[in-house]
């Protein structure tokens, strides 16, 4: 029994489970924020412009059956509005959290092997107290 409790505690303390729990809680809270924004800000604007914000009462009567397609349309409209608001919020958060672009660094051309060899020749010539040899004065090999 003790081993089972120990394994369960190890399972709970793994990073993935804790991160998942935090993600679910944050998602729930964020959903409440987005839903409140849609219901209390976006929907009243739609009502002011169109005079009606709900289509869930729309239905089609076929014989004795009633097809309530308005509820489906309302669910689609709600989804699109919430997705749009979520998209805008995420774009704003990403823009605010993005680091300011650093000034473009000027690319300095890397010295070639010939430049390094020339520097080495100059240093060796100075050390030996001999005149600086140019490339044309090099001994042939």
> What's the number of helices?
4
Q: Order of strands side by side in the largest beta sheet?
A: 1-2
**Global mean pLDDT:** 78
Task: Report the end-to-end length measured between terminal Cα atoms.
Answer: 83 Å
Number of strands: 2
Which sequence of SSEs, written as H and E, runs from N to C? HHEEHH
Main sheet overview: 2 strands, antiparallel
Low-confidence stretches: none
Residue share in helices?
55-70%
Strand % is: under 5%
Tell me, briefly, the overall form: elongated
- Helix/sheet category: mainly alpha
Rg result: 36 Å
Write up this protein.
- The protein has 141 residues and is mainly alpha-helical.
- The chain has a domain at 1-51.
- It is 65% helix and 4% strand.
- It contains 4 helices and 2 strands.
- Strands 1-2 form a two-stranded antiparallel sheet.
- Strand 1 and strand 2 (65-67) form a beta hairpin.
- Helix 2 packs across helix 3 (69-97).
- The radius of gyration is 36 Å and the shape is elongated.
- It starts with a helix and ends in a 14-residue tail after the last helix.
- 0% of the residues are buried.
- The mean pLDDT is 78.
